[in-house]
Design brief:
about 140 residues; Elongation Factor Tu (Ef-tu), domain 3; about 45% strand; globular
């Protein structure tokens, strides 16, 4: 399998309450090895119009059973990093909009950006998961 460049992005992610258009129910969450990269929302990047989206997989979340209205840490990794140049411009302090379909289900404040590759090496997954666990 070809190894491609990407980044890991650490965010503080607020889940929009259901009453405000967010998810209808909780998300399992967590960062255990067997749950990594299972959740695949799309993301609106800074400067993009509402509804414009790019994909990034979620490595994991700092907690399990995330309910609408909760705030958690998350680590995401864009796929098609090379094909979406705007990912290269992401920096701490930026806001990302998390989409499920056309609905904004979360808003993430970027805390850090670190180089990685796809598929993401296990040592990177473990390092970023430790940040989810300990902050």
């Amino acid at each position: 399998m070809e190894v491609l460049p990407t980044v890991a992005i650490g965010i503080n992610l607020y889940f929009v309450p259901t009453a405000d258009g967010g998810r209808q129910g909780p998300l399992p969450g967590g960062f255990a090895a067997e749950t990594r990269f299972r959740y695949r929302p799309n993301w609106g990047l800074p400067g993009w119009a509402d509804g414009e989206q790019a994909g990034a997989l979620v490595l994991g979340f700092s907690q399990e059973d995330i309910h609408p209205g909760d705030t958690v840490r998350a680590v995401i990794a864009p796929f098609f990093f090379e094909g979406v140049p705007a990912w290269r411009d992401i920096q701490p302090g930026d806001e990302l909009r998390m989409y499920e379909g056309l609905h904004i289900c979360g808003r993430g404040a970027v805390l850090w950006v670190k180089p990685s590759s796809w598929p993401m090496p296990e040592e990177d997954q473990d390092r970023f998961s430790r940040w989810l666990e300990t902050g």
